[in-house]
Amino acid sequence: MTTYSSRPTVHEAMSRFRASLLRRASAVSWVVLAIIGAQAVRTEVYDRQEFYIPAIGLILLVVLSTIARWERVIAASWAPLVVGSWMLALIAGVTAVGRLPELSGTAEPILYGLAAISGLLLPWWAHTLSTVAIGSAIAHIALTLGEVDAVSDVVAPVLTVVVVAAATALVNFELEREMVVSASRERMLEDQRLDFERLYEVSATLARAESLSEIVPYLVGTICRYLDAQVGVVLLFDGSTNKLRVMSPIWVNGSTVDAEETAIEVVGPNVIAQSYRSIRPIHVRRVDENSDAHIVLRELGLTQALVAPLKVEALRVGVIVVGEPVHGDFTQDQLEQLGSLAAPAGLVLSQIGRYEAQTEMARRLEEVAQMKTDFVSTVSHELRSPLTSIIGSLDTVSRPELAPTHPTSQQLLQSARRQAARLQRLIEDLLVVSRIDRGAIPVHLENIALKEIFDEVNRVVQVEASIFVEPADATVEADRDHLTRVLINLVENAAKYAPGSPIELKGTQMARHCRIEVVDHGPGIPEDQRERVFERFTQLDQSDTRSRGGTGLGLSIVKSLVEVMNGSVRIETTEGGGATFVVDLPRGR
Ligand code: ADP
Fold first, then answer.
1. Mean pLDDT computed over every residue of the chain
2. Does the pTM of the predicted model rise above 0.70?
3. Which has the higher per-residue pLDDT, 484 or 372?
4. Which atom of ligand 1 is nearest to the CA of 551?
């Protein structure tokens, strides 16, 4: 788990500040020594024992403070003693020098300076001690110098020392407080940053996966690493059994292990079920050997665990369990972290779960559709042979030499022949549809003269359509059988739904394609139904269609066949009323 050791604590920050203050003070001390030396030369006291002995002592102290590794000293617990002693030695040295009347004026400001930095360097008790020492030193100097006016020469400088010392102690106090505040703010921001980083990584890992079995090990692995846990398990809610099911694999010590099929009741005393029900993370400090609430945790061999619900807003998806911290015990902080990591995990797990369910559903639907196509194809084939033989028999029986003489018998025979033909059309349509569904429609493209194929259609259908082709030798690139079927279908529809109205078959060659129009002057097709009529089994007026015969498959076959020939079909309104079916196909080469 990430620790915060890289960030300075308040103590460390203060130590650094104090060490740098001491280094600067050492540098300034050399200047002060130079001033004292210059003063001693000017006043010719340098060769007096009272001067040079304390002066040598001061030089040694400043040398010592210049070479000292203050960072180390200050960080130690005994630092106040060392710094305090160093401070007392300086005070003593400066006092000794200050006892000389020639140097007392220089010593006094130095002592004020020492009072100021003592406040920033020492804890309150040591600072108080050094303030007393400095106050005494100033009083001592004043008294040594002889005639003193108690107020102006002793009390005033001592008071000044006290004020300076108090002011710097206050500054020090404020500084420390500010550092505590900013350190805790910094720590909070750092925690937030780490939380975001983890959430981002968990979400990013999860978003890449497509199946639950792929995502679960990633998820628990990432979370276990963050929480310094050795074991991680995800249990997902199974709505069909109302149980929480352990997802395999589980995470153990950096690798995945297949889990046995285990499920626990959502109702019941188990701590995992409790976390799921209450939507709250639970910290299990010690897995109890005998408690029913800890049964699954025990089976997993855990001695302590964190359990958090996986949820998407109010929807509960499952539970995540992490157990066995690598070091020490799980903390409240880690429980909260698991809670926040479980949020994106729940979201993605539920999405993937839904995606998997939908994929499974789509697969099943595809299977059913395939079964239906196979069934239609088999049944149609099976019906075709007996029907062909029935039609053959009816045609034979209808021959003049064999036909019955009774008019009713003749009518019945004709009716049977018509119905057989209708059945044959239906079976043919179903066969074509099943071939289209299987993608098994053969397409042989060739150049076909429009005039020629229109004539062919006119020969097959029972009505005569007027033919217009512009230019007369216009050709399309199409499959002859398919195009014939398409045109017969459209012309027969025109005859069926616009009885008695003239029908036109028009062909026009355009720049890149050929346009074929089948025009009638019947009732037409309302604009909002023009897409729908191309769908399977769509019949606009059921009663109308029933009386005219039809399956609702014709136009869907037309559309599929036109499309496999790289064309398109649509419906327009005929001028003056009626339907115009427009088929666009590639131009012949
Ligand atoms: P059906 O076997 O019912 O004829 P189709 O797929 O060929 O099936 O046609 C679908 C429906 O479109 C028909 O039921 C009919 O209502 C309508 N329709 C087709 N062609 C025409 C037309 N030329 N004029 C008016 N309505 C038509």
1. 87
2. no
3. 484
4. 2
Q: Which residues pair with 250 in a beta bridge?
A: 257
**How many angstroms does the Cα of residue 303 sit away from the middle of ligand 1?**
75
Ligand 1 centre from 546 Cα, in Å? Answer: 11
- Residue 549 has a pLDDT of 63
Which class does domain 445-586 fall in?
Answer: alpha beta
Take atom 19 of ligand 1 and give the residue whose Cα is closest.
Answer: 493
- Distance, in Å, from the CA atom of 295 to the CA atom of 292, rounded to the nearest integer, reads 5
Predicted pLDDT of residue 3: 36
Out of 334-348, 432-446, 506-520, least confident range: 334-348
Place of tokens 């945790």: 297
Ligand 1 centroid vs 423 CA: distance in angstroms?
Answer: 18
Give distance in angstroms: CA of 386 to centre of ligand 1: 29
Whether the per-residue pLDDT at 264 is higher than 60: the answer is: yes
What does the buried/exposed string (b/e) look like for 14-35 if buried means 16 or more CB atoms within 10 Å of the residue's CB? Answer: bbebbbeebeebbeebeebbee
pLDDT tens across 9-38, in order? 677 778 888 889 889 989 999 999 999 999
- Per-residue model confidence as pLDDT tens digits over 411-451: 999 999 988 988 888 888 888 888 888 888 999 999 999 99
State phi, psi for 316 to the nearest 5 degrees: -90, 130
444: exposed, middle or buried (Cβ count in 10 Å: 0-12, 13-18, 19+) = exposed
Q: Which atom of ligand 1 is nearest to the CA of 494?
A: 23
d(CA 280, CA 276): 7
Most confident of 138-147, 406-415, 563-572: 563-572
Atom of ligand 1 nearest to the CA of 552: 8
Q: How confident is the model at residue 129 (pLDDT cuts 50, 70, 90)?
A: very high
Which amino acid would we find at residue 336? E
Output the CA 426–ligand 1 centroid distance in Å.
Answer: 15
Distance (angstroms) between ligand 1 centre and the Cα of 541 equals: 9
Beta bridge pairs of residue 588: none
Task: Name every protein residue with a CB atom under 6 angstroms from any ligand 1 atom.
Answer: 493-494, 497-498, 520, 522-523, 525, 533, 538-541, 545, 550-555, 579
Q: Where are the domains of the chain?
A: 10-186, 210-440, 445-586
**CA of 557, closest atom in ligand 1:** 6
Q: In 401-557, which ranges are E strands? A: 445-449, 466-470, 475-479, 504-509, 513-519
What CATH number does the domain located at 210-440 have? 3.30.450.40
- The DSSP annotation for 281-322 comes to -EEESS--SS-GGGHHHHHTT-SSEEEEEEEETTEEEEEEEE
Name the region of 279 (left: φ>0; alpha: ψ -120 to 50; beta: rest). Answer: left
